[in-house]
Task: structure prediction
Amino acid sequence: MPSTDTGELIRAARGGNPAAFDDLTGRFRGPVLAFLAVRLADAAAVEDLVQETFLTAYRGLDGFRQEAPFLPWLQGIALNLLRNALRKKRPQVVDPLSERLEAAAQREVEALGDSDVVEALERCVAGLDERSARLVTMHYREGRPLEQIAGADGSSAKAVSMALVRIRRRLKECIQGRLKEVSG
Amino acid sequence: MNAERLEELLASHGSGPEQGELLATIDSDPAAASAAGWDLLIDRLLAHPRLRAERPVPARPLRVLPFVASIAAALAISVGIVWWIAIPRTVVPIAPGAGVARWRVIFDVGGSVRTVPDSGGPAVDRPDLDRPREGVVSPNGARVLTVSKEDGDFEIWVADRGGAGRRKLTDNDAFDGGPTWSPDGRRIAFISTRGGTQQIWVMEADGTVARQITTETDGAGDPQWSPSGEWIAYVPLPRQIPDSLNPPGKGICLVRPDGTGRRSVFEGPMLGDYAWDPDGGRIATSRDGKLWVYSVADGRTEAFASFATIMPALSEGYEAWKLHWRPDGRAVACTLMFLAQTSEEFKIHGGKQLYVFDLSGKGRELSFASRPRVLGWELDHSFVRSAAVTYFNDRPGPPLEVPNADLWKLISFFPEMGRGRRGGPPAGWKALAKIRFETVNGPITVSVPINPIDVWSEGNGDWPADPALKPYLRALVGRGPP
Result:
């Protein structure tokens, strides 16, 4: 069963109140994004699919059974869209390690349920120390190669790569702490 | 496996001989698999554009208006896009410019505001232009409407621009939302379910005298007040949305603010966005891969541009969103949304582009690194040689033109304005200014909806506060893009 609040929003959205659907989107965007991100590496494609998921959900809201849980319904739509998108791509060589890593990540996302991991991550990124924030910016926002980041950082590419892994671990701990606070 | 070794393996990206070790570890050690899963999850999320934008994290969760709310053809919350631009205190002569481009599209991409010539060319960062604010800003910029359900259900709130004096304008158990200001800032159109179905209502700006102005069988949404103030456009809602391929909306209707004069235009499903032109005489929308325009004066509807001019594949499944008329009324800028179930082509065309279509039918595609959002237009000041402003009103005689764009000289020409100072603007003033720019490439006439109250109330040698005028005032005083 969806929470009472979610159920009310669904009812309001089905009644034609787009603001209620906007609220639902705000609430479930993070979980849907995480669900897709661990299945597809192309961030831009993931963003497209997130938008399409909510678009399809909005247009099919009348087909949603009120008593059913909302997030799995959204995830079902997302999965269908993802399959459609992948079906159109050329066959790719399966990389067993990536496959295994994605499966591990998918288990973690499943365990998170409808917790908003994206919002928690945003907050945790905002709390990073100066060097970590700089490395994250150079690597993820500016898309610089590790060698170039190493030059700017005064270290080696290997050290930068290692630092990024540690930053991600610290972010994970921060996210888990935040989500525990929220659920507690 | 100890944590440090796992980190080394992850840092190596599982390449070379370490790939086998990482694979074996994930298969045999649940804790290591969990850590590796988290590492991938965070890596993917950090690479996502939403996080890449590096926006400041708000103290409270930020409500993001998704475009899916727009498809309901009922922009209910947080769609006020108004620019707050530093207004110079002194009028300076307009410097002659040189070049080709005249108009620039203002857009938001990756969290920063940029502009690009509508004829193509490099985009420039514009940190001097603020990002859109949450809420619907009044025409004079002094007040902001928001919709919140902090008291249990959705109500419309108003506050001063700085947040002071916040209070509820509606207070009942029904849904109230989607507010839009009248051009003179005196009334508010909104959607409400207080009468049973969702309909369009109009109330005074202080929340009093609310009255229902539509009686659509299945409800109505997305009200947009015409710049002239004479009409409110809205979208009648469909009976139901039985499946994802049955689009919402039943066209667009017009009704006068007092509820009379209902007329239906663009009958049929509404998939795209719609927008009034700056004069308030036309409405543009998209359907079946084309852009259409409806003329209020003669009731004619005609297609003026086809997405297929960009690429034949764009003719099916794409609709225009974030439609913005160029202020001279001769072109529109928009993004395209792909509304079918598959989206491979959308990734090639539509996802990271904005489009400009002339009324003559010519279309241009401008591509960016990530998805742009069209916010409006501005005139490139460096191409302006001089300007003259005409305020249209109902006074007898020809409209008055003031050379050199000195708006305050203009205001002093109107004795009615002096009387207005004591009791408000005189009756019959229309909220429309026309600015004629002489540019290096010839004349351009721009219609700008304005609020006569502002012109009246701030007449102390300062510029009018009307935010709609500000991009043009920038051009007039030579403080345009770098």
Q: What stands out?
A: Residues 88-93 of chain A have pLDDT under 50 and may be disordered. The longest helix of chain A spans residues 157-183.
